[in-house]
Amino acid sequence: MMSRSATRVARSVLTHVGPRYFSTAVSRGGAASDVAALGGYVHGGAANFVHGPAKGPEKVVVTWMRVPVLGSRNASTLALGERQQEEEKKKVQAGSDGGAAAGGGGNGNKSIVSYWGVEPAKVTKEDGSEWRWNCFRPWEAYKADLSIDLSKHHAPVTFLDKVAYWTVKALRFPTDLFFQRRYGWRAMMLETVAAVPGMVGGMLLHCKSLRRFEHSGGWIKALLEEAENERMHLMTFMEVSQPRWYERALVFAVQGVFFNAYFLTYLISPKLAHRIVGYLEEEAIHSYTEFLKELDKGTIENVPAPAIAVDYWRLPKNSTLRDVVMVVRADEAHHRDVNHFASDIHYQGHELKEAPAPIGYH
């Protein structure tokens, strides 16, 4: 039998320490039977205390447990985590049941579940059918102007013009040697380089606009449009032929060298940089003309046009590879005009912002 002072001390200790290491239970009946019952219920009971005056058959029995009550908290936490996982699974299933989102190249992917609230808009074509491309939208598609003059040529007169002209001619020699008459591979590989100048020029004009707190006259957008258009050429020809491992390695090397070389050239002389691109586009027109000749001869199979090309250039559904090459060649002719025009602006002592940019010139 414990004294009252000892009982108070025990109660105080149990009050502060009990929630972590002890569990209490109230039983009705004899003390011995209570202890035995609790000993069976609580595994590993180390010691039992009966405190407080016995009032009739009711006694309070305290059992010291080896297993802390924290285990029950952990069990509650685990149960909560399982419920959260179940809820996440339900959300993912709901997103998957909602349909597959169209990938950048038209491949179906599962919907992405996010709590950020950034939901992709549902885009449809003019006929109401679902739009399958994420890399461009219906309002960015257009019909190429095939009536453009393909024979126009800027005769090199000044020293910088001649430097630009012969630089491009020098670059053509190894290209002809490597690809020879494989115009499908040639087109795909050259587009990996052709998309660089517009991006570099647009980036540098963007930084210049920020530094000087001035508008660019729309030239940033015009040059970035050119870069995006050239990239779409690449995405189209990727559907026709796949590059080999050594051609992919060549892209890494050539793109790395060309990007840095063109970046420095544009910093030093924008008029020279644009003139180089103008002559590169003239060579591209020549390459696609030869591509068409091989298609007409039957040397290259005139396969159906890729679906991405049909939607991007708004071509008829029965279009072929020849139709694709025609519109791509027209695009290159427009890029030729834009870059020669930009170089002429600089030659006349003006800045690009002083002349309205040919945005949307296709």
UniProtKB/TrEMBL annotation:
| Example GO BP | alternative respiration
Q: Where is this region: Disordered?
A: 78-105
Names of the cofactor(s): Fe cation
Any GO molecular function: ubiquinol:oxygen oxidoreductase activity
Q: What class of enzyme is it?
A: oxidoreductase
* Catalysed reaction equations from the record: 2 a ubiquinol + O2 = 2 a ubiquinone + 2 H2O
The answer to whether the entry has keyword Mitochondrion is yes
Q: Name one GO cellular component term.
A: respiratory chain complex
Q: How is the cofactor bound?
A: Binds 2 iron ions per subunit.
Q: Which UniProt keywords apply?
A: Electron transport, Iron, Membrane, Metal-binding, Mitochondrion, Mitochondrion inner membrane, Oxidoreductase, Respiratory chain, Transit peptide, Transmembrane, Transmembrane helix, Transport
Report the InterPro entries cross-referenced here. Answer: AOX, AOX_sf
Tell whether Transit peptide is among the UniProt keywords. yes
**Protein name (database record):** Ubiquinol oxidase
